[in-house]
Design a protein that fits this description.
single chain, mainly alpha, 7 helices, 67% helix
Length: 190
């Protein structure tokens, strides 16, 4: 175990000799030739240097014994941070899907995959109605949520609706608008 060898003093020492410092700590601090001669005769095993690989292993074992910070599990979920996380997740999913589709569209002639709109529409038309509505809803949710939450952020950027009650109210409005508009797009979208 690596220790810093800092003396623990419960009451104020009456003289400098009442506090014991390890010789190596004095040497590394002051580097005096007189002290270096004294330190050879007085070595403290707790302040003996150890190889860096052994020090790394000791630190790794100590880190395994540390308690894990509770992070989000200690907080009650609030609409503000849940929607903030979902906004980032939907933004990442949407941009990733666009990049993936664009890359697939570019390499489709090489691979012989048909991803043009007529082929996609024909394959989608063959699906059962319940599957079509479900897929449309799953695609519509990230679009509508990210769009409505983006409008919410633009309103905040203008300096309005930024009080705690307004943040909660607009958050639930975004959730409601997302569900209603995604359902409408899934059911009535052609």
């Amino acid at each position: 175990m690596i220790s810093l060898n800092i003396p623990t003093v419960l009451q104020r020492p009456t003289s400098l000799t009442s506090v014991r410092y390890p010789a190596s700590a004095i040497l590394t601090t002051y580097k005096s030739p007189t002290l270096s001669r004294l330190s050879t005769s007085q070595t403290d095993p707790a302040s003996t240097p150890i190889p860096s690989t052994q020090a790394h292993e000791i630190l790794s074992r100590q880190r395994l014994n540390r308690p894990v910070a509770p992070h989000l599990t200690i907080y009650q979920p609030q609409i503000s941070w849940v929607l903030s996380a979902l906004n980032r997740i939907t933004g990442s999913l949407l941009s990733g899907a666009f990049y993936l589709f664009g890359f697939t569209y570019l390499i489709s002639p090489i691979l012989g995959i048909h991803v043009e709109s007529t082929a996609l529409a024909a394959s989608f038309a063959e699906l059962p109605t319940a599957v079509k509505v479900g897929l449309k809803f799953l695609v519509a949710v990230p679009f509508t949520f990210h769009s409505f939450n983006g409008v919410r952020h633009l309103v905040w950027d203008s300096g309005r609706e930024f009080a705690n009650k307004s943040v909660v109210r607009t958050g639930w409005a975004v959730v409601g608008l997302t569900v209603v508009s995604s359902g409408a797009l899934a059911i009535y979208g052609s």
